[in-house]
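#struct-help
A.M.: can someone run this one for me? Single chain, 391 residues.
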Amino acid sequence: MRWLDIESPPEIPLDILLRLQRESVAQRPHDAARHATLGEIFLRVAKYSDAAAAFEQAEAIDPRNFRQFNALAECYVELDRPDAALQVCERGTKVMPDCFRLHTVHGKALRSLGRHLEARAAFLRALSTGQDAFAAAECLLFPLASDPDGVRTLALCEEFPPSYANSTIVRGYRAIALSRVGRLDEAKCLVDLERYPAQITFEPPAEFGGIERFNALLADEVLTNPSLQYIPSYKFYRTESLAISGARAFPVLVKFLRAAIEDFIAGFAQCGLDVILPPPPREGFLQSGANVVRADEGHHTHLHKYAYVSGVYHVSVPAEVASDDRAGALVLGSNDDLTDGYVPCWGSRDIKPIPGVATVFPSHIFHSVIPTRSEQPRIAISFDLCAAPAA
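D.P.: on it. C-alpha coordinates below:
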Protein backbone atom coordinates (compact mmCIF):
# COMPACT_ATOMS: atom_id res chain seq x y z
CA MET A 1 0.00 0.00 0.00
CA ARG A 2 1.20 3.50 -0.82
CA TRP A 3 0.63 6.30 1.67
CA LEU A 4 -0.54 9.61 0.32
CA ASP A 5 0.44 12.82 2.08
CA ILE A 6 -2.84 14.72 2.06
CA GLU A 7 -2.14 17.64 4.32
CA SER A 8 -4.82 19.93 5.68
CA PRO A 9 -4.25 23.66 5.22
CA PRO A 10 -3.72 25.62 8.44
CA GLU A 11 -7.01 26.04 10.25
CA ILE A 12 -8.21 29.49 11.25
CA PRO A 13 -10.07 29.20 14.58
CA LEU A 14 -13.77 29.09 13.84
CA ASP A 15 -14.69 32.07 16.00
CA ILE A 16 -12.21 34.21 14.06
CA LEU A 17 -13.33 32.73 10.73
CA LEU A 18 -16.95 33.48 11.61
CA ARG A 19 -16.16 37.07 12.57
CA LEU A 20 -14.19 37.66 9.36
CA GLN A 21 -16.91 36.22 7.17
CA ARG A 22 -19.59 38.31 8.87
CA GLU A 23 -17.47 41.39 8.15
CA SER A 24 -17.09 40.25 4.54
CA VAL A 25 -20.86 39.90 4.16
CA ALA A 26 -21.40 43.34 5.71
CA GLN A 27 -19.02 44.85 3.17
CA ARG A 28 -20.82 43.27 0.20
CA PRO A 29 -24.32 42.29 1.37
CA HIS A 30 -25.51 41.51 -2.17
CA ASP A 31 -22.80 38.92 -2.84
CA ALA A 32 -24.53 35.51 -2.77
CA ALA A 33 -21.26 33.58 -2.51
CA ARG A 34 -20.33 35.40 0.70
CA HIS A 35 -23.67 34.52 2.29
CA ALA A 36 -23.23 30.88 1.22
CA THR A 37 -19.76 30.74 2.77
CA LEU A 38 -21.14 32.25 5.98
CA GLY A 39 -23.82 29.55 6.01
CA GLU A 40 -21.19 26.84 5.66
CA ILE A 41 -19.27 28.19 8.66
CA PHE A 42 -22.43 28.39 10.75
CA LEU A 43 -23.19 24.79 9.78
CA ARG A 44 -19.74 23.68 10.94
CA VAL A 45 -20.46 25.04 14.42
CA ALA A 46 -23.99 23.57 14.44
CA LYS A 47 -25.76 26.97 14.41
CA TYR A 48 -28.47 25.67 12.15
CA SER A 49 -30.86 28.63 12.34
CA ASP A 50 -28.13 31.12 11.43
CA ALA A 51 -26.84 28.80 8.71
CA ALA A 52 -30.31 28.43 7.20
CA ALA A 53 -30.79 32.21 7.16
CA ALA A 54 -27.47 32.69 5.36
CA PHE A 55 -28.25 30.02 2.75
CA GLU A 56 -31.74 31.45 2.24
CA GLN A 57 -30.22 34.86 1.58
CA ALA A 58 -27.72 33.39 -0.88
CA GLU A 59 -30.50 31.66 -2.82
CA ALA A 60 -32.67 34.79 -2.81
CA ILE A 61 -29.85 36.92 -4.23
CA ASP A 62 -28.76 34.49 -6.96
CA PRO A 63 -31.20 31.58 -7.33
CA ARG A 64 -29.80 30.45 -10.69
CA ASN A 65 -26.35 29.73 -9.27
CA PHE A 66 -27.34 28.47 -5.81
CA ARG A 67 -25.98 24.97 -5.16
CA GLN A 68 -26.07 24.55 -1.36
CA PHE A 69 -29.42 22.73 -1.44
CA ASN A 70 -28.26 19.76 0.65
CA ALA A 71 -26.75 22.07 3.30
CA LEU A 72 -29.92 24.16 3.57
CA ALA A 73 -32.10 21.04 3.71
CA GLU A 74 -29.82 19.60 6.43
CA CYS A 75 -30.36 22.76 8.48
CA TYR A 76 -34.12 22.39 8.18
CA VAL A 77 -33.96 18.73 9.25
CA GLU A 78 -31.91 19.70 12.31
CA LEU A 79 -34.41 22.48 13.07
CA ASP A 80 -37.30 19.97 12.87
CA ARG A 81 -38.70 21.56 9.73
CA PRO A 82 -38.92 18.50 7.46
CA ASP A 83 -41.56 20.03 5.17
CA ALA A 84 -39.23 22.93 4.39
CA ALA A 85 -36.40 20.44 3.83
CA LEU A 86 -38.52 18.55 1.30
CA GLN A 87 -39.20 21.73 -0.65
CA VAL A 88 -35.47 22.46 -0.83
CA CYS A 89 -34.76 18.89 -1.95
CA GLU A 90 -37.34 19.18 -4.71
CA ARG A 91 -35.67 22.35 -5.99
CA GLY A 92 -32.26 20.82 -5.66
CA THR A 93 -32.94 17.58 -7.50
CA LYS A 94 -33.97 19.55 -10.57
CA VAL A 95 -30.51 21.11 -10.66
CA MET A 96 -28.43 18.30 -9.12
CA PRO A 97 -30.29 15.02 -9.80
CA ASP A 98 -27.32 12.79 -8.95
CA CYS A 99 -26.25 14.48 -5.71
CA PHE A 100 -26.01 11.66 -3.18
CA ARG A 101 -25.96 14.11 -0.26
CA LEU A 102 -29.23 15.60 -1.45
CA HIS A 103 -30.84 12.16 -1.68
CA THR A 104 -29.59 11.39 1.82
CA VAL A 105 -31.04 14.50 3.44
CA HIS A 106 -34.23 13.95 1.41
CA GLY A 107 -34.51 10.57 3.09
CA LYS A 108 -33.96 12.11 6.52
CA ALA A 109 -36.77 14.60 5.94
CA LEU A 110 -39.15 11.89 4.72
CA ARG A 111 -38.34 9.74 7.74
CA SER A 112 -39.04 12.66 10.08
CA LEU A 113 -42.50 12.85 8.52
CA GLY A 114 -43.11 9.14 9.05
CA ARG A 115 -42.90 8.38 5.32
CA HIS A 116 -40.55 5.45 5.88
CA LEU A 117 -40.92 3.61 2.56
CA GLU A 118 -40.19 6.79 0.61
CA ALA A 119 -37.27 7.54 2.93
CA ARG A 120 -35.84 4.08 2.31
CA ALA A 121 -36.09 4.63 -1.44
CA ALA A 122 -34.28 7.98 -1.13
CA PHE A 123 -31.42 6.44 0.86
CA LEU A 124 -31.11 3.64 -1.71
CA ARG A 125 -30.96 6.25 -4.49
CA ALA A 126 -28.06 7.87 -2.65
CA LEU A 127 -26.27 4.52 -2.57
CA SER A 128 -26.98 3.84 -6.23
CA THR A 129 -24.95 6.89 -7.26
CA GLY A 130 -21.82 4.89 -6.44
CA GLN A 131 -20.37 7.89 -4.65
CA ASP A 132 -19.35 8.39 -1.02
CA ALA A 133 -22.82 7.69 0.39
CA PHE A 134 -21.86 5.95 3.64
CA ALA A 135 -24.13 8.34 5.54
CA ALA A 136 -27.09 6.99 3.56
CA ALA A 137 -26.06 3.43 4.42
CA GLU A 138 -25.96 4.37 8.08
CA CYS A 139 -29.39 5.98 7.86
CA LEU A 140 -30.77 2.69 6.52
CA LEU A 141 -29.02 0.41 9.00
CA PHE A 142 -29.10 2.39 12.23
CA PRO A 143 -32.87 2.07 12.91
CA LEU A 144 -32.67 -1.70 12.42
CA ALA A 145 -29.94 -2.25 15.00
CA SER A 146 -32.55 -2.34 17.77
CA ASP A 147 -34.81 -4.75 15.85
CA PRO A 148 -34.83 -7.97 17.93
CA ASP A 149 -35.43 -10.09 14.84
CA GLY A 150 -32.31 -9.35 12.79
CA VAL A 151 -33.81 -10.82 9.63
CA ARG A 152 -34.68 -7.42 8.15
CA THR A 153 -31.14 -6.18 8.71
CA LEU A 154 -29.63 -9.16 6.91
CA ALA A 155 -32.08 -8.75 4.04
CA LEU A 156 -31.15 -5.08 3.73
CA CYS A 157 -27.45 -5.93 3.68
CA GLU A 158 -28.12 -8.15 0.66
CA GLU A 159 -29.72 -5.21 -1.17
CA PHE A 160 -26.67 -2.99 -1.02
CA PRO A 161 -24.82 -2.34 -4.29
CA PRO A 162 -21.62 -4.40 -4.76
CA SER A 163 -19.45 -1.42 -3.87
CA TYR A 164 -21.01 -1.38 -0.37
CA ALA A 165 -21.71 -5.07 0.19
CA ASN A 166 -18.53 -5.63 2.20
CA SER A 167 -17.99 -2.07 3.34
CA THR A 168 -17.05 -1.23 6.92
CA ILE A 169 -20.51 -0.05 7.92
CA VAL A 170 -22.32 -3.05 6.42
CA ARG A 171 -19.95 -5.50 8.13
CA GLY A 172 -20.56 -3.83 11.48
CA TYR A 173 -24.35 -4.04 11.30
CA ARG A 174 -24.36 -7.44 9.63
CA ALA A 175 -22.46 -8.85 12.60
CA ILE A 176 -25.16 -7.64 15.02
CA ALA A 177 -27.89 -9.16 12.84
CA LEU A 178 -26.06 -12.49 12.54
CA SER A 179 -25.81 -12.66 16.32
CA ARG A 180 -29.52 -11.89 16.69
CA VAL A 181 -30.60 -14.68 14.33
CA GLY A 182 -28.35 -17.23 16.02
CA ARG A 183 -25.67 -17.52 13.35
CA LEU A 184 -23.08 -17.15 16.07
CA ASP A 185 -20.05 -18.62 14.29
CA GLU A 186 -20.47 -16.16 11.43
CA ALA A 187 -20.95 -13.27 13.84
CA LYS A 188 -17.86 -14.19 15.83
CA CYS A 189 -15.84 -14.45 12.61
CA LEU A 190 -16.66 -10.80 11.95
CA VAL A 191 -16.01 -9.64 15.52
CA ASP A 192 -13.32 -11.56 17.38
CA LEU A 193 -12.25 -9.33 20.26
CA GLU A 194 -9.33 -11.52 21.28
CA ARG A 195 -7.72 -12.23 17.91
CA TYR A 196 -8.35 -9.08 15.89
CA PRO A 197 -7.25 -6.09 18.02
CA ALA A 198 -3.52 -5.48 18.38
CA GLN A 199 -1.64 -3.34 20.88
CA ILE A 200 1.64 -1.78 19.83
CA THR A 201 3.95 0.14 22.17
CA PHE A 202 5.60 3.28 20.85
CA GLU A 203 9.28 3.93 21.49
CA PRO A 204 10.02 7.55 20.53
CA PRO A 205 13.40 8.60 19.16
CA ALA A 206 16.07 9.09 21.82
CA GLU A 207 16.06 12.85 21.30
CA PHE A 208 12.69 13.06 23.13
CA GLY A 209 14.07 11.57 26.33
CA GLY A 210 11.61 8.70 26.75
CA ILE A 211 7.92 8.07 26.35
CA GLU A 212 6.81 10.21 29.31
CA ARG A 213 8.54 13.31 27.98
CA PHE A 214 7.31 12.62 24.46
CA ASN A 215 3.70 12.28 25.59
CA ALA A 216 3.97 15.40 27.76
CA LEU A 217 5.15 17.35 24.70
CA LEU A 218 2.42 15.81 22.54
CA ALA A 219 -0.25 16.65 25.13
CA ASP A 220 0.94 20.25 25.18
CA GLU A 221 0.79 20.40 21.37
CA VAL A 222 -2.76 19.04 21.39
CA LEU A 223 -4.05 21.38 24.09
CA THR A 224 -2.52 24.48 22.51
CA ASN A 225 -3.25 23.67 18.87
CA PRO A 226 -6.98 23.36 18.05
CA SER A 227 -6.19 22.05 14.56
CA LEU A 228 -5.05 18.78 16.15
CA GLN A 229 -8.32 18.25 18.00
CA TYR A 230 -11.38 16.42 16.77
CA ILE A 231 -14.51 18.59 16.87
CA PRO A 232 -17.74 16.55 16.61
CA SER A 233 -19.60 19.19 14.61
CA TYR A 234 -17.10 18.71 11.75
CA LYS A 235 -18.24 15.06 11.54
CA PHE A 236 -14.78 14.02 10.37
CA TYR A 237 -11.31 13.84 11.80
CA ARG A 238 -8.81 16.13 10.20
CA THR A 239 -6.35 14.65 7.80
CA GLU A 240 -2.81 14.30 9.08
CA SER A 241 -0.53 17.27 8.76
CA LEU A 242 3.22 16.92 9.02
CA ALA A 243 3.86 20.67 8.98
CA ILE A 244 2.02 22.00 12.01
CA SER A 245 3.62 25.18 13.25
CA GLY A 246 5.73 24.48 16.32
CA ALA A 247 4.79 20.79 16.56
CA ARG A 248 7.65 18.34 17.10
CA ALA A 249 5.94 15.31 18.60
CA PHE A 250 2.86 14.95 16.40
CA PRO A 251 4.70 14.44 13.06
CA VAL A 252 6.81 11.74 14.73
CA LEU A 253 3.68 10.04 16.07
CA VAL A 254 2.11 10.07 12.60
CA LYS A 255 5.03 8.07 11.23
CA PHE A 256 4.62 5.55 14.06
CA LEU A 257 0.87 5.24 13.44
CA ARG A 258 1.47 4.53 9.77
CA ALA A 259 4.00 1.84 10.66
CA ALA A 260 1.63 0.37 13.28
CA ILE A 261 -1.13 0.08 10.67
CA GLU A 262 1.26 -1.57 8.20
CA ASP A 263 2.33 -4.11 10.85
CA PHE A 264 -1.31 -4.77 11.71
CA ILE A 265 -2.20 -5.45 8.08
CA ALA A 266 0.85 -7.68 7.67
CA GLY A 267 -0.56 -9.90 10.42
CA PHE A 268 -3.99 -10.42 8.82
CA ALA A 269 -3.27 -14.00 7.74
CA GLN A 270 -2.24 -15.01 11.26
CA CYS A 271 -5.46 -13.80 12.89
CA GLY A 272 -7.87 -14.58 10.04
CA LEU A 273 -8.69 -11.05 8.96
CA ASP A 274 -7.47 -11.82 5.44
CA VAL A 275 -10.73 -13.71 4.77
CA ILE A 276 -12.94 -11.17 6.60
CA LEU A 277 -11.77 -7.85 5.19
CA PRO A 278 -11.45 -6.83 1.56
CA PRO A 279 -7.87 -6.27 0.37
CA PRO A 280 -6.18 -3.15 1.78
CA PRO A 281 -6.47 -0.04 -0.37
CA ARG A 282 -3.70 0.40 -2.91
CA GLU A 283 -3.42 4.03 -1.89
CA GLY A 284 -4.48 5.37 1.48
CA PHE A 285 -4.12 8.27 3.83
CA LEU A 286 -4.20 8.72 7.57
CA GLN A 287 -6.97 10.65 9.29
CA SER A 288 -6.34 11.55 12.89
CA GLY A 289 -7.61 13.80 15.62
CA ALA A 290 -7.04 14.24 19.33
CA ASN A 291 -9.91 13.42 21.66
CA VAL A 292 -9.78 15.41 24.91
CA VAL A 293 -12.36 14.37 27.51
CA ARG A 294 -12.88 15.29 31.14
CA ALA A 295 -15.26 14.36 33.97
CA ASP A 296 -18.47 12.82 32.55
CA GLU A 297 -17.43 13.19 28.93
CA GLY A 298 -17.02 10.01 26.92
CA HIS A 299 -17.97 8.56 23.55
CA HIS A 300 -21.10 6.60 22.73
CA THR A 301 -21.03 3.44 20.67
CA HIS A 302 -19.86 4.10 17.11
CA LEU A 303 -17.75 2.76 14.29
CA HIS A 304 -15.62 4.62 11.77
CA LYS A 305 -17.67 4.10 8.64
CA TYR A 306 -15.24 5.79 6.25
CA ALA A 307 -12.19 3.81 7.38
CA TYR A 308 -10.55 0.43 6.75
CA VAL A 309 -8.45 0.14 9.92
CA SER A 310 -8.85 2.30 13.03
CA GLY A 311 -7.06 2.81 16.29
CA VAL A 312 -6.47 4.82 19.43
CA TYR A 313 -3.14 6.03 20.81
CA HIS A 314 -3.36 7.09 24.45
CA VAL A 315 -1.36 10.21 25.24
CA SER A 316 -2.23 11.02 28.85
CA VAL A 317 -4.52 9.59 31.51
CA PRO A 318 -5.49 11.22 34.84
CA ALA A 319 -3.49 9.78 37.73
CA GLU A 320 -6.59 8.69 39.65
CA VAL A 321 -7.72 6.54 36.70
CA ALA A 322 -4.89 4.09 37.32
CA SER A 323 -6.72 2.62 40.32
CA ASP A 324 -10.01 2.17 38.43
CA ASP A 325 -10.01 -0.66 35.90
CA ARG A 326 -12.84 0.81 33.79
CA ALA A 327 -12.44 4.59 34.04
CA GLY A 328 -11.50 6.02 30.66
CA ALA A 329 -11.42 2.57 29.05
CA LEU A 330 -11.81 1.99 25.33
CA VAL A 331 -14.60 -0.60 25.10
CA LEU A 332 -14.37 -2.72 21.96
CA GLY A 333 -17.47 -4.55 20.77
CA SER A 334 -19.90 -2.42 22.77
CA ASN A 335 -23.35 -2.07 21.21
CA ASP A 336 -25.70 -1.03 24.04
CA ASP A 337 -26.45 2.41 22.56
CA LEU A 338 -27.56 0.80 19.30
CA THR A 339 -29.24 -2.45 20.22
CA ASP A 340 -31.61 -1.34 22.97
CA GLY A 341 -29.67 -3.35 25.55
CA TYR A 342 -29.04 -6.47 23.48
CA VAL A 343 -25.53 -7.88 24.01
CA PRO A 344 -24.19 -9.64 20.88
CA CYS A 345 -22.47 -13.00 21.17
CA TRP A 346 -18.97 -11.52 21.25
CA GLY A 347 -19.59 -9.47 24.39
CA SER A 348 -17.16 -6.61 24.87
CA ARG A 349 -13.54 -6.03 25.81
CA ASP A 350 -12.18 -3.18 27.91
CA ILE A 351 -8.85 -1.75 26.80
CA LYS A 352 -7.28 0.07 29.74
CA PRO A 353 -5.76 3.39 28.61
CA ILE A 354 -1.97 3.13 28.85
CA PRO A 355 -0.02 6.18 27.63
CA GLY A 356 2.34 5.24 24.82
CA VAL A 357 0.32 2.28 23.55
CA ALA A 358 -1.68 2.20 20.30
CA THR A 359 -4.63 -0.16 19.97
CA VAL A 360 -5.43 -1.05 16.34
CA PHE A 361 -8.55 -2.88 15.14
CA PRO A 362 -10.77 -3.34 12.07
CA SER A 363 -12.95 -0.28 11.59
CA HIS A 364 -16.20 -2.28 11.57
CA ILE A 365 -15.87 -3.12 15.27
CA PHE A 366 -18.15 -0.84 17.28
CA HIS A 367 -16.53 0.80 20.30
CA SER A 368 -17.09 3.41 22.98
CA VAL A 369 -15.18 5.25 25.71
CA ILE A 370 -16.10 5.26 29.41
CA PRO A 371 -15.85 8.64 31.21
CA THR A 372 -12.97 9.11 33.63
CA ARG A 373 -14.94 11.18 36.22
CA SER A 374 -11.77 13.25 36.56
CA GLU A 375 -11.34 16.96 35.87
CA GLN A 376 -7.90 16.24 34.43
CA PRO A 377 -7.89 15.56 30.69
CA ARG A 378 -7.73 12.12 29.14
CA ILE A 379 -6.03 12.70 25.79
CA ALA A 380 -6.02 10.16 23.02
CA ILE A 381 -5.28 10.28 19.31
CA SER A 382 -7.87 8.47 17.21
CA PHE A 383 -6.61 7.46 13.78
CA ASP A 384 -7.92 5.79 10.64
CA LEU A 385 -6.54 4.34 7.45
CA CYS A 386 -8.86 5.54 4.68
CA ALA A 387 -8.77 4.58 1.02
CA ALA A 388 -7.74 7.39 -1.29
CA PRO A 389 -10.63 8.70 -3.40
CA ALA A 390 -10.82 7.26 -6.89
CA ALA A 391 -9.35 9.58 -9.48
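A.M.: thanks! The chain has a mean pLDDT of 91.
D.P.: also worth noting: DSSP finds 16 helices and eleven strands in the chain.
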